[in-house]
Amino acid sequence: MAQRQPLIAGNWKLNGSRQSVVDLATAVSAGCGQLSCEVLVCPTSVHISDVLGVLGNTALHLGAQNCAEATSGAFTGEVSATMLAEYGCEYVILGHSERRAMYHESSDIVAAKCKAVQEAGLTPILCVGETLEEREAGQVESVIAEQLDAVLNGAGVQAFENMVVAYEPVWAIGTGKTASPEQAQDVHAMIRARIASHDNATAQALRILYGGSVKPDNAATLFSQVDIDGGLIGGAALDAESFLAICEAAG
Ligand code: PGA
Q1: What is the pTM of this model?
Q2: Residue 94, domain member (yes or no)
Q3: Hey, whose CA ends up nearest to atom 2 of ligand 1?
Q4: How confident is the model at residue 2, as a pLDDT?
Q5: Strands (E), the chain
Q6: Is position 126 within any domain?
Q7: Which of 101, 148, 173, 181 has its CA 20 to 30 A from that of 95?
């Protein structure tokens, strides 16, 4: 069985000032050095260089929340993966439910962005997850299958060799309603099985994060599930103490 190093990723969303992101990154980097999990923060694009300035030789990793499909050209307002790579980013969150719902990103667009991120030498954090209506209609598996298959069908299972998947039930994001450890584990196992049906070794090595109202008091039971390899943390990532407590729960 592959050893998967847990990853805890902070998704800072549209928050912070130049000073507050420097303060937060400084506090997180000071506290994450002794942990065995990998710790990542994802500020807004405009704050990336400020956070890069405080990373130095610390164990903290840097990522972005989105990027363009294209590398360059007439795409007003976009930022490319190659530009993010130049600023020290190692990961890019893609297909977050807020981007899918509010910015109309289809699974095909998300798959094209995954390709661009990997071509730039970075690792996508591919977000998947169902809405409450979809869960109540018994569609969890088909919704997540569609989101994964857009990448599998376009780029093949080898795309998952340099990928992190984040399962984020839409109904749990920012709502304080966490999936139970069993509910999350069921979906994580289903995601791993779907990748394994293409290539078992890739599936066993794939890190699958849980996201959606992870807090210091529920993190340990979620992370103790066999197919949960860390978390994608929103609200609680904006407070260094809470975020570090979640990181500690992952080891
Ligand atoms: P939350 O957000 O932790 O605030 O629920 C998670 C996310 O959206 O990635």
Answers
A1: 0.97
A2: yes
A3: 234
A4: 63
A5: 7-11, 38-42, 60-64, 91-94, 123-128, 164-167, 207-211, 230-233
A6: yes
A7: 181
The one-letter amino acid code at 208 reads I
φ, ψ of residue 108 to 5 degrees: the values are: -70, -40
> Tokens 């209506």, residue?
133
2 occurs within a structural domain: no
Out of 8, 131, 167, 173, mutate this one to test ligand 1's pocket (max ligand atoms within 8 Å of CB): namely 173
Residues in the chain: 251
CATH code, domain with 38: 3.20.20.70
What is the span of the domain harbouring residue 187? 7-249
Q: How many domains does the chain have?
A: 1
Q: Are strands 207-211 and 230-233 parallel, antiparallel or unpaired?
A: parallel
Q: pLDDT digits over 87-107, tens only?
A: 999 999 999 999 999 999 999
Lining ligand 1 with CB less than 6 A are 11, 168, 173-174, 211-214, 232-236
Number of alpha helices (DSSP H) and beta strands (DSSP E) in the chain: 11, 8
What gap in Å lies between CA 112 and CA 130, rounded to an integer? 21
